[in-house]
């Protein structure tokens, strides 16, 4: 099993969710986060005063899938989240040693 952690722009969430549902992803966790990468934030003007925005709003997706499905999930996220502009996000893939469904006690592949 693989844990896929992806950060994307907030307005891309619904499009990415639809793409993942179409390829068979049955669940994901979504968190609103703030962060920065190579863009290192930006400046904005509010009521005539300029100020630095060091952290940019992002969405973090956490998805656990079978190892065989991981490449397909990465492809779907990349294709739908890409705008071609700086700040499109990142994807990280980690191994998952064990999964347990709390309600039924099912483990590993049966739990996802």
Automatic annotation (TrEMBL):
PROSITE patterns assigned to the protein according to its UniProt record, in alphabetical order: PII_GLNB_CTER (PS00638), PII_GLNB_DOM (PS51343), PII_GLNB_UMP (PS00496)
GO molecular function annotation: ATP binding; enzyme regulator activity
Domain of life: Bacteria
Modified residues (O-UMP-tyrosine): 51
SUPFAM superfamilies on file: GlnB-like
InterPro entries assigned to the protein according to its UniProt record, in alphabetical order: N-reg_PII, N-reg_PII-like_a/b, N-reg_PII/ATP_PRibTrfase_C, N-reg_PII_CS, N-reg_PII_urydylation_site
GO cellular component, one term: cytosol
Key word Disulfide bond present: no
Entry function: P-II indirectly controls the transcription of the glutamine synthetase gene (glnA). P-II prevents NR-II-catalyzed conversion of NR-I to NR-I-phosphate, the transcriptional activator of glnA. When P-II is uridylylated to P-II-UMP, these events are reversed. When the ratio of Gln to 2-ketoglutarate decreases, P-II is uridylylated to P-II-UMP, which causes the deadenylation of glutamine synthetase, so activating the enzyme.
Similarity comment: Belongs to the P(II) protein family.
PANTHER family in the cross-refs: NITROGEN REGULATORY PROTEIN P-II, NITROGEN REGULATORY PROTEIN P-II HOMOLOG
Subunit text: Homotrimer.
Protein name: Nitrogen regulatory protein P-II
Organism of this sequence: Rhodalgimonas zhirmunskyi
């Amino acid at each position: 099993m693989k844990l896929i952690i992806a950060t994307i722009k907030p307005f891309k969430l619904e499009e990415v969710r639809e793409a993942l549902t179409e390829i068979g992803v049955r669940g994901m966790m979504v968190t609103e986060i703030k962060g920065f990468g190579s863009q290192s934030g930006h400046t904005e003007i509010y009521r005539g005063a300029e100020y630095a925005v060091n952290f940019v709003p992002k969405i973090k997706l956490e998805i656990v899938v079978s190892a065989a499905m991981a490449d397909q999930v990465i492809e779907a996220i990349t294709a739908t989240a890409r705008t071609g502009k700086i700040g499109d996000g990142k994807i990280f893939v980690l191994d998952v040693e064990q999964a347990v469904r709390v309600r039924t006690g099912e483990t590993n592949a049966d739990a996802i």
